[in-house]
Specification:
The structure is a homodimer. Chain A is of the alpha/beta class. Helix content of chain A is about 35%, strand content about 15%. Chain A is built from eleven helices and eleven strands. In chain A, helix 10 crosses helix 11 (about 290-305). The interface of A and B includes residues 104, 219 and 263 of A.
Chain lengths: ~350, ~350
């Protein structure tokens, strides 16, 4: 189905993976989510990480102040030292998910899980997952093995995902921001036997390939973790999004960094897609003659997997070309300088 | 052999691949070559390219003014439109080599040779190479196929090198700045049957791997074309340099870009190694207990392959740690912030 006419109304997004940052940076970025989203699952790898029930409550307050329209969903950061005893208190304050970060694979993850740990997880960690299972908490995985070449790091992580699915059949697991054909196939295969394994797919991984990051030049604003892969991987992601399997849902992984931390000696990983995500998703589904799939991927699959309350508010877009600014509040957004056909 | 004592005298470098730039930028960079080199082969992909005998003579004058100590060796830029008639006049002004740039693979190469051309070179181009062969000009190759993923682009180019070696057995050919185990093996294999195929190896490819460019963060100052590859490729390059095969010679590919063109939206390719190359080469050979190989790789192999005159001047280094500055005349040098054990 393709749009006709110059207006369209679509459901707000449920963005199941976003970086809200903290303090002054949050004020500059989170309002983009506010006007485009019903729910947003905010990641806990902030400058001071979200570890305790108090962290969760404080961060939720800060997010609510800055992200008025959208409902923030809270996560905590799993560490190798996390104890099973901590889970019930985290669950009691409404923490939706625990996020697993391999060591050094992305922003603020140096305290994460090592490659050795992933090969041989500790009993303490398995007990933590049992507790999460018991409290209906979701396990969110950054799926890359540390110290593996960036193009191979996700693929190597998949056996760990299989181990977890088999060991904790009642634990809901989300493999975040998948980028490879292999990950798509894993999710599709397991979807025949369980509805407890899902994956988020970003906006930018539907558009970028590795050559858009490392091409004739180096493009820091397209650099994220996991890095965009080969054209066949991107095609597999597009097929997954259009295919309608409910185990694929939207997670922007919008990850703003100040321009000075992107255009520098050592450029941070992260694509800031929040200011364009809804508009580009509409354009994406429209161009693929699949507007009827927008709601499933951007809203409904997440609602069902996470058991979110139904939000019926819609957002109205007009068919009007606009050029994405080169900078918004000191941050370069995804698709800067390019033209989008729909405007809120 | 390892150095002993606190002083060492080594021959000046013959750098068989360098970017001297033009105008104001040349004034800021070329003096580093001046004090470290006997001969320098300067690349012709300048902002206005070196195409004609007049270009060659003008550029040589400009280089001589700025690069006092070292003797500039001149190249011209081969284009798909280059005519066989142009070669004798270029040879008459002492042009040493013609440089082949695939389209879009590096700085100022958008007018280069397409992937289709590389698959099926024109008769005109083959006639140009015949003329170069006749005038004892060297063919220098940037060995990457356009529009191929950066990690595979050099390997895919190698069949073209083989085609050229077989078609023009008397043409001296240099595969520039090789980065892969495959390229090392190709050169070694052909060295058993001809001395007309050689390769240059840079300083930075002896130190960097792909993860130093695309790692936890993105490192624009380590980004060059061809991009640094896997650890096993770097090991093959190190073995080639230490192995003593005369078909391997030094070419820095020192390629300065203003800091603002490296730390930006679209970062230029090129590593600026000129300010540290001699010092780091001494350290490299010293650390590998192979000081006796320094002269072969950095001076003699090029002298023999290119038929350069013998320069006996030496440069004296003192064993004294120094930290490479973060910026030299507005350009970030290779190894910035790190410590080198030898100082000129």
């Amino acid at each position: 189905m393709r749009t006709s006419g110059n207006f369209i109304q679509v459901p707000l997004i449920n963005d199941m993976h976003a970086h809200g940052r903290k303090g002054e940076l949050m004020e500059r970025v989170v309002y983009h989510h506010g006007r485009r989203c019903a729910h947003v699952l905010f990641m806990p790898n902030t400058e001071s990480p979200i570890l305790t029930p108090k962290d969760v409550e404080d961060y939720r307050q800060e997010l609510r102040r800055n992200c008025r329209g959208a409902i923030p969903l809270m996560t905590f950061k799993l560490l190798p030292s996390t104890s099973p005893n901590e889970i019930s208190d985290l669950a009691a304050v409404g923490t939706v998910a625990g996020k697993f970060y391999p060591c050094g694979v992305t922003t603020n993850s140096s305290d994460g899980f090592s490659a050795d740990f992933i090969k041989e997880p500790t009993n303490q960690f398995l007990a933590v997952l049992s507790e999460m299972e018991k409290h209906s908490m979701v396990l969110c995985l950054h799926g890359e093995v540390p110290d593996v070449m960036c193009l191979a790091a996700e693929k190597e992580f998949l056996s760990f995902v299989e181990f977890l699915v088999k060991t904790f059949p009642k634990l809901r697991i989300v493999l975040e921001h998948i980028t490879t054909k292999d990950a798509v196939e894993l999710i599709e295969n397991y979807s025949k036997q369980t509805s407890n394994l899902a994956a988020t797919i970003t906006l930018h991984h539907l558009f970028l390939t590795f050559s858009d990051v490392v091409g004739d030049k180096l493009y820091p604003h397209n650099f994220c973790k996991p890095i965009a892969k080969m054209p066949e991987d991107r095609d597999a992601l597009i097929s997954a999004v259009l295919g309608g399997n409910p185990q694929f849902m939207f997670g922007s992984d919008s990850a703003p960094h100040d321009r000075r931390n992107k255009e520098c000696y050592a450029c941070c990983a992260g694509v800031f897609s929040a200011p364009v995500m809804l508009e580009m998703l509409v354009e994406f589904f429209d161009q693929h003659d699949s507007m009827e799939k927008y709601e499933d991927f951007c809203h409904k699959h997440a609602m069902e997997f996470y058991g979110l309350k139904k939000i019926t508010n819609k957002v109205r877009l007009v068919r009007e070309e606009w050029r994405v600014p080169y900078q918004i509040n000191g941050i370069v957004p995804f698709y800067a300088g390019k033209t989008i056909k729909w405007r809120i």
